[in-house]
C-alpha cells in the first residue's frame, strides 16, 4: 500500500510530531511524508518514511498572514502546488492522508484543492482520509466554516480519523454539524509515543519546564522563573527545555534570567522528550496535544498553562484535569504559581490512565481496512 501523507505545521511542532508518529506506524507500507512547515532541526524519521520537504510556509504568531524565508509567498505557493501534483502523478498513491484539512489549514487550500481534484479525476483514485486531532479551534463565523468543511469533506473524502478517545472528547463538541458528514468517522484513540520499558528512574525535585516549539509561551517561562525564586528549597532543580523555533531575542533574554539562579539549567530541545519527563517529578508546560500525550505516557505530575488565544488547549486541559491526569494553571501570578508548584510536588502521582492511547496503530488498521474494502 502506498500512502501520500501531507502535514503542514504553521506555529508549533505538535502537528508535525503527531503526524510523524502515525507515519512511523506504517512500517509495513510505502509511505511518502510531505511536510510544509519550518523544518525541525535534528529530527530523524524511521528509515521507511520517505520525506519530501515543500518550500516552507508558516503563520505569524498572530495567525494573520503566511510567512516564508524563501522570497515571495505567491511564488512559493506556485512551486508547492506543482510539487504536490507532480508527486501524485509519480507515486500513484493508494491513500491520501491529509492532516487537519479541511477542518483547518484553509490558507493551504491553494495546493490541497488542486490535489484533491487531480485525485478525483485519476483512473487510480486514492482513498482520501482526514487525520484530525481531538479538538478544533473555534471560528468567528461557525456557520460558514462548517458549510465550507462539509462541501469539501462530502465531495472528496472517504474517512475521517479523529485522534482522540470519545470517552474524553468528541468531534461534535467543536463541530456542530457532525450528522451531516457523509464519510464515516472513526476514533483512533490518542496518538502517543511508545511507553518506556523499563521506566527511567524518576529524580525527586527535578522540574521540567517546556513550551513546545517555543514561538509562544515566553510569558509562562518568565512567570515560572519568578515563582521559582520564591521557593527557597535548595534541593529543587528546574530544567528549561527551549523550543526549536523560539525567537533568538527571547532565548537570550530568558537564558540570562535563568543564569541568576544556580538551580536553573537551560537545556536544548530534546527529541526524546518522553524520556525527559519520565525522569522528572513535575512538568510545567503549555497544554498542546503532544505535550499532554507525553504527560500521560510518562506518568509525570503536571501543571499546564493553556494557550489563551483559542479554546483548544483549555478544553483539552479541562478534560484531562477532570480525569486526574494534570492540573491547570489559571494564573501566572508568581506567589500563586509558587504555591501551586509546591502543592504539586507534595501531591501523589497521577493514577494510571484509562484513556485509549494506541492512536497510531489504530490509524494503520483503519486505513488498511478502508483500502481492502475499496
UniProtKB/TrEMBL annotation:
Keywords: Transferase
GO molecular function: hexosyltransferase activity
Glycosyl transferase family 28 C-terminal domain span: 211-349
Presence of the UniProt keyword Oxidoreductase in the record: no
Stored InterPro entries: Glyco_trans_28_C (IPR007235)
UniProt xrefs under PANTHER family: SLL1722 PROTEIN, UDP-N-ACETYLGLUCOSAMINE--N-ACETYLMURAMYL-(PENTAPEPTIDE) PYROPHOSPHORYL-UNDECAPRENOL N-ACETYLGLUCOSAMINE TRANSFERASE 1
Name under which the protein is recorded: Putative glycosyltransferase
Species this chain originates from: Desulfosoma caldarium
Amino acid at each position: 500500500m502506498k500512502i501520500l501523507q501531507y502535514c503542514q505545521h504553521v506555529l508549533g511542532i505538535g502537528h508535525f510530531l503527531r503526524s510523524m508518529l502515525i507515519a512511523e506506524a506504517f512500517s509495513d507500507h510505502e509511505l511518502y511524508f510531505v511536510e510544509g512547515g519550518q523544518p525541525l532541526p535534528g529530527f530523524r524519521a524511521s528509515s521507511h518514511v520517505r520525506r519530501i520537504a515543500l518550500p516552507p510556509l508558516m503563520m505569524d504568531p498572530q495567525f494573520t498572514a503566511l510567512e516564508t524565508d524563501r522570497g515571495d509567498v505567491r511564488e512559493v505557493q506556485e512551486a508547492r502546488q506543482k510539487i504536490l501534483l507532480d508527486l501524485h502523478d509519480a507515486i500513484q498513491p493508494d491513500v491520501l492522508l491529509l492532516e487537519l484539512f479541511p477542518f483547518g489549514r484553509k490558507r493551504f487550500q491553494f495546493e490541497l484543492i488542486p490535489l484533491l481534484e487531480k485525485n478525483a479525476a485519476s483512473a487510480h483514485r486514492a482513498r482520501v482520509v482526514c487525520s484530525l486531532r481531538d479538538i478544533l479551534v473555534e471560528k468567528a463565523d461557525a456557520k460558514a466554516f462548517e458549510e465550507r468543511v462539509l462541501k469539501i469533506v462530502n465531495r472528496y473524502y472517504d474517512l475521517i480519523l479523529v485522534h482522540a478517545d470519545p470517552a474524553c472528547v468528541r468531534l461534535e463538541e467543536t463541530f456542530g454539524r457532525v450528522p451531516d458528514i457523509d464519510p464515516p468517522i472513526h476514533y483512533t484513540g490518542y496518538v502517543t509515543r511508545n511507553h518506556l520499558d523499563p521506566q527511567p528512574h524518576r529524580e525527586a525535585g527535578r522540574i521540567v519546564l517546556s513550551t513546545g516549539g517555543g514561538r509562544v509561551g515566553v510569558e509562562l517561562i518568565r512567570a515560572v522563573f519568578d515563582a521559582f525564586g520564591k521557593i527557597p528549597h535548595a534541593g529543587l532543580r528546574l530544567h528549561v527545555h527551549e523550543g526549536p523555533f523560539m525567537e533568538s531575542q527571547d532565548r537570550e533574554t530568558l537564558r540570562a534570567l535563568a543564569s541568576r539562579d544556580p538551580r536553573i539549567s537551560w537545556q536544548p530541545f530534546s527529541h526524546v522528550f518522553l524520556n525527559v519527563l519520565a525522569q522528572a517529578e513535575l512538568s510545567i508546560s503549555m497544554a498542546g496535544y503532544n505535550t499532554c500525550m507525553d504527560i500521560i505516557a510518562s506518568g509525570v505530575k503536571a501543571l499546564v498553562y493553556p494557550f489563551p488565544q483559542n479554546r483548544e488547549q483549555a478544553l483539552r486541559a479541562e478534560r484531562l484535569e477532570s480525569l486526574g491526569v494534570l492540573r491547570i494553571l489559571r494564573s501566572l501570578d508568581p506567589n500563586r504559581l509558587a504555591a501551586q508548584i509546591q502543592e504539586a510536588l507534595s501531591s501523589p502521582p497521577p493514577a494510571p490512565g484509562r484513556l485509549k492511547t494506541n492512536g497510531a496503530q489504530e490509524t494503520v488498521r483503519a486505513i488498511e481496512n478502508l483500502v481492502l474494502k475499496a
